[in-house]
Structures are given as C-alpha cells and as structure tokens.
Design a protein that fits this description.
The complex is a heterodimer of chains A (about 230) and B (about 260).
Chain A lengths: L1 H11 L3 H4 L4 H16 L7 E6 L6 H14 L4 E5 L7 H4 L8 H5 L5 H4 L1 E2 L5 E4 L8 H6 L1 H13 L2 E5 L8 H8 L2 E7 L5 H13 L4 E7 L15
Parallel strand pairs in A: 1-5, 1-6, 2-4, 2-5, 6-7
Antiparallel strand pairs in A: 3-4
Chain B lengths: L6 H10 L1 H22 L4 E9 L11 H18 L2 H11 L5 H7 E5 L5 E8 L2 H23 L4 E5 L14 H26 L6 H8 L3 E4 L6 H4 L5 H10 L3 H5 L10
Antiparallel strand pairs in B: 1-3, 1-4, 2-3
The chains are: A alpha/beta (about 230), B alpha+beta (about 260).
C-alpha cells in the first residue's frame, strides 16, 4: 500500500486536472471541454479520438485530462487506451495492463468486466491490454464496431487515446469510426508539414476533425489565458 | 513540398520580426555613425585649376587648330601631372614623408571635355597640407612642363586657397549612416526571412488557422509552468482527493488474468 502511493506520485503528475484542479492548466482543459461542447453538431458526438502527427506531442496527457474534466461536468466517461503499440494509460492511473482493449478485440472477456474504475467519479478506464502483434487489423475488425456500439450504450462519452497518425495506420481507422477527432499539436515542436499531413490523413479517413489542441503552449505574461480568475 | 510564395504572408512575417529589423537598422546606423565620427580621420580636399593655352606667337593667327592642339595635349598633361617626374619634385620640395605611389593616390586630375582647364584635386588629412600640395604640384608642373615638352603653355588659373572653415570631404557621416541604415534594414529583413524559414514548427494559433484551417480548441501550458502559476492546493482539495481516489490494489487484486496469449 505504502509503496504504491509513493510510486504513484511522479506518474500521476501528468493528470493535472485531477491533482491540481485549480491550476491554470486545469482551467485550460475545461476551456477546451467547453469549446468541444459548443463545436458539436447536435449532441450525437459520443466518441472522441485524440491523436497527433508524431509521437510525444501529448495525446495521452491531453486525453486523460480531458476525460477527467468531461467526467467533472457530470458525463459518464470511458477513457480507452487505443494505443496498443505504446500503451500509457495504465501508467497514468497506476494500473496493471493485464486486460484491456486488445483482449476484447480478440473476443476475450466482456466490456463490463474489463473496464476499470479510475477513482474519479464518472470516469472509467479501458487499458490497452497486452500488446498484440497486429493492432491495425484488430481495430479494423467488425468487433470494434460492436464494441463501440456497446460502449455508446453504457457511456455518455468515450475518449480514445491513439498512436501518432503519421507513424501507423491505427489512428486513421479509429478516426473513421469515431464521431470526432481532436488533433494535438506540440507547440514549437510539431513541424508544420507534419501537421498538414496529419490533417490530410484524417481527411482521407473521413474523420470529423473537431479542432486542434495546442499543447506545451507557453503563455506570454499578458496573454488572456494566463490570469487566474479566482 | 508545397512552397507558394504569399506576399501577404511574407509581410506578416516581416511585421512579426519588426523589432529585429528595426534593431538591425539602428545598430548599423550607430556603427556607421561611430565609425564616421570616431574612427575615420577627416580628409580635406583642395583643388587648383590649370589653364593649358599657349599664347600664339602672332596674336592675329589665333586659330581653332591651336585650341585642338591644346586639347590633345591635355590628356598627355593629365598623365604627366601624376608622373613620378613631377611628384618626386613635389615630395622633395615640400619634404613630404611619403612615396610617389601614395601621393599619386591622393591626387585626382580631371578636365572637362573640350575645355582647356585642368582641375587638380588633392586630398589630405589637413586642409593646409592639401592646399600646399595642390599649389606646389601645379607650380612644379608649370615649371617642369617647359623642360619636358619644350613648350610654355601652362599657367595656373586658380590656385588652391585655404578656406576660413574647412569642411572635410570624407567621411560623410550622413551618407555613411544612410548606407548603414539600408544595409541594416536589408540584413534584418534577410535574417527575419532566414529565421522564419528555419523554424518550421507550429508556434501560434494563427499557424493552425492558416495552415490547417482548423479551429483551435484551446491551449495547454507546459506542466513545468504549473509550479509557477498554481497556488498551493487547499486543504479542501486534498480532502476531496483522498475521498475520491482509491488505492488501485483494492480494484485490481481480485481480477483474473485474461488474454495472456494471442
């Protein structure tokens, strides 16, 4: 018990919306939540994919924090780690990764038994499961469609964290199946050309791109976001 | 790679780098001013005019042919003035501590087309010295030409004079500063373009809008900024955290391991 709590601290640091709910960053996530809510065509958007052009742009951090703030707003949220190549969700919430999405996709286990409690009211988690050798094929199977349909019945919002769109095809498949896709951009790191390519790949996957989250955005002192309100 | 040159974009980028361009311009003007006023030594110029015209032996026989002859001679004289024959004499007479070559570089001989007047200009760090050299050169030339050409057709028309307040011809600080401003502006603009070309990353919300045509949902500050911007968490927050976050062990302990092999 003691060891677990100790090891949890550095891992959970990314989960800003949880550990520092009053911080500017948490407020920024809430702003994004509001913008997404207003961007929805109607109210039918139930599956939301977070992806980025390249690796390490902040997909997992953003999707985890967004899941937290969406849960905060009273939605019943499921956060799915669809990055079956480099899964991270179980690290963020300090879980094991014995069962998860990959297991469900090969027909092992039930959704109800596979989801995990996040410890946050309204937020449940589905880790990636053990790393399969054919993630793209698994995602492309009709099993995923059934699974998503089942998720939609049980949850108000399903957030998928996914691999980089320019590296592997997984995100394109997912983007096609999700109601909306959010592109995460690492400010000052993401190449413009990569961002354009990412957008174009999403367009060819017929994804609905909700918009862009600019991660690692250094605020200037007089920036309108930077002042704490309370 | 898509590379369309967009004028509007170009000026927008320049506008973004305006401080850099202004700084470069100001810096170059400052350097030009400093060099002009502090480092460059002033150079003064004295000029004397020499008339090349031989009074004909017979005043009634003054003809166009004489003038033509004189004009043709002028180009020869222009060379002779700057020849060592003259300049060595000038150096000796004035006791100058320099070579014929260096003196030659400071002397400019010119004549307006079809005119019999030759202008001799001398540059020197001192106005007085410039006047002296100009007049001595003219005088020596006038004397020597008799020996060299065996003619006596050169007379000093207007000797160089010492003005009351001599103005240096070089450096021209205003001109230098103007050149500095132009160079600084061009370098600044060039640097701005290079910097912009070098940085091909997404940096601003405008980039997203222009490049992707997508909506910016929001921005997220680096987590590193958290410590700076965040207040220490309040007691009530910590209580809430303790209440809601359960130890994972409770949830995962009883769960069977599924799907260990594919």
């Amino acid at each position: 018990m003691l060891n677990q709590t100790a090891s949890k601290r550095p891992l959970a640091r990314k989960l800003v919306a949880r550990i520092k709910p009053n911080s500017v960053i948490s407020e920024q996530y809430r702003t994004i939540r509001t913008t997404i809510n207003f961007s929805l065509p109607g109210n039918e958007m139930k599956t939301l994919l977070f992806t980025s052009a390249s690796k390490e742009e902040g997909k997992s951090t953003t999707s985890a924090n967004m899941a937290v703030v969406f849960a905060e707003s009273g939605k019943k949220v499921l956060l799915v780690d669809a990055d079956m190549r480099k899964p991270t969700l179980h690290h963020t919430f300090n879980l094991n990764n014995h069962i998860g999405l990959s297991n469900l996709l090969v027909g092992k286990g039930e959704l109800e038994q596979s989801v995990r409690d996040s410890g946050i009211r309204g937020l449940e988690l589905l880790t990636s499961g053990q790393v399969p050798h054919n993630p793209a094929e698994l995602l492309d199977s009709p099993v995923l469609d059934q699974l998503v349909a089942e998720m939609k019945e049980r949850y108000d919002l399903i957030i998928f964290d996914s691999p980089p769109i320019l590296s592997v095809t997984d995100s394109k498949i997912l983007a096609n199946k999700c109601d909306g896709t959010v592109l995460v951009v690492n400010t000052g790191k993401t190449e413009k050309q990569s961002a354009i390519k990412a957008r174009d790949s999403l367009a060819t996957s017929r994804a609905y791109i909700v918009g862009v989250v600019m991660n690692n955005y250094k605020l200037s002192k007089d920036h309108y976001y930077s002042h704490e309100y309370n | 790679m898509e590379s369309t040159f967009n004028m509007k974009e170009f000026f927008k980028n320049l506008k973004k780098r305006l401080p850099l361009i202004i700084a470069m311009t100001v810096a170059f003007v400052a350097v030009a001013a400093a060099v002009s006023y502090l480092w460059m030594k002033p150079v003064y110029q004295a000029s004397t005019q020499i008339l090349v015209n031989k009074a004909p032996a017979n005043a009634q026989e003054f003809s166009m042919q004489d003038i033509d002859t004189n004009l043709q001679l002028i180009s020869t004289y222009n060379v002779i003035i700057k020849s060592p024959a003259i300049l060595t004499e000038v150096i000796n007479e004035l006791g100058l501590n320099e070579t014929v070559q260096s003196l030659n570089e400071r002397i400019e001989v010119s004549s307006i087309e079809d005119s019999q007047v030759v202008t001799l200009e001398v540059e020197d760090g001192s106005m007085q010295q410039a006047v002296l050299i100009a007049n001595t050169t003219a005088k020596v030339f006038e004397q020597e030409i008799r020996n060299l050409m065996r003619v006596d057709n050169v007379s000093i028309l207007a000797p160089a004079t010492m003005p009351a307040s001599p103005e240096p011809v070089k450096p021209d600080p205003l001109f230098n500063m103007a050149v500095g401003a132009i160079i600084g502006f061009m370098l600044g603009t060039g640097l701005a373009i290079v910097l912009d070309q070098l940085n091909t990353t997404v940096r601003t919300e405008e980039d997203i809008d222009e490049l992707l045509g997508l909506q910016v949902l929001g921005v997220v500050s680096p987590v590193g900024d958290l410590d700076r911007t965040d207040k220490p968490s309040k007691h009530t927050d910590r209580m809430e955290l303790d209440e809601n976050v359960e130890p994972d062990s409770v949830k995962t302990a009883a769960r069977p391991k599924v799907g260990s092999t594919y």
